[in-house]
Fold:
Amino acid sequence: MADQDLVPKCVSESHVTLSVLMNPEHANALGNVHGGVVMKLADEAAALAAMRHSRSPVVTVAIDSMTFEEPIYVGNLVTLSAELTYTGRTSMEIRVTVTAEDPLTGSVVHTNLAYFVFVAIDRQGHPHPVPPLCVETPEEQLRFQQGQERQAQRKQRHQRELAERQQTNSES
Ligand SMILES: CC(C)(COP(=O)(O)OP(=O)(O)OC[C@H]1O[C@@H](n2cnc3c(N)ncnc32)[C@H](O)[C@@H]1OP(=O)(O)O)[C@@H](O)C(=O)NCCC(=O)NCCS
Structure:
C-alpha cells in the first residue's frame, strides 16, 4: 500500500488500558514492586497501542524519560494507560501513564510516565508505513508537536552515537 493511501486514525482508536494486580512474584528485595516489572508492563501496553494503530507487528526502537515517582506495593492494582502522541512515516511515539490503586482504601496515585517509540515492520522485519495520526483536541495537537520535537532530538542523539562509535572503531 502506498503511503498516501493510508487512512488517518484518531488517538482514541488505539488507546489501551491495562490493569494488573501486583502479587508477591512482582516484588523486589525491599518488598515493593520491581521497576523492571513496571517497565515490561508499560512496554506491553505501548506495543498494543502501536499494533492497534498500525494493525501490524511492531518493535520497540527507543524508550526514554521513564519516571518512577511513587513506589508501588504488592496488593496494588496497577493501571497503565497508553496512547499515541506522534506518528512519523514508520514510527509511532506512545505515552504511557501508570497509576497504582490500593483496593482496600481506594487511594490512587500516579506512579510513572514514559515515552516509547515503536516501528511497524513487515514480514522481512523492514520498517513499513503507518497511518498518520489525526489529532483532534488542542491537547492532542500540543502532544503531537512535543512528540515531533522529542523524535527529532532522538534522531540527532542516534546520529551522534553512531558517529562516536565509528570514530572509536576507526581508532582501535
Ligand atoms: C527498528 C528497526 C527495524 C529500524 O530499522 P532501521 O534500519 O533503523 O530503519 P530506519 O532507519 O528506516 O528507521 C525506521 C524508523 O525508526 C526511527 N528510528 C530509528 N532509530 C531510532 C531511534 N534510536 N530513536 C527513535 N527513532 C528511531 C526512524 O526515525 C524511522 O522513523 P520514521 O520512518 O517515522 O521517520 C531496527 O533498528 C531494529 O530491528 N531494531 C531492533 C528492534 C528490537 O529488537 N526491539 C526490541 C524487541 S521488540
In short: The pocket of coenzyme A is lined by residues 59-62, 88-91, 117, 119, 121, 127, 154-155, 158 (CB under 6 Å). Helices lie at 35-54, 138-171. The domain at 3-171 is CATH 3.10.129.10 (Thiol Ester Dehydrase; Chain A). Strands lie at 9-10, 16-21, 58-68, 77-87, 91-101, 108-120, 133-134.
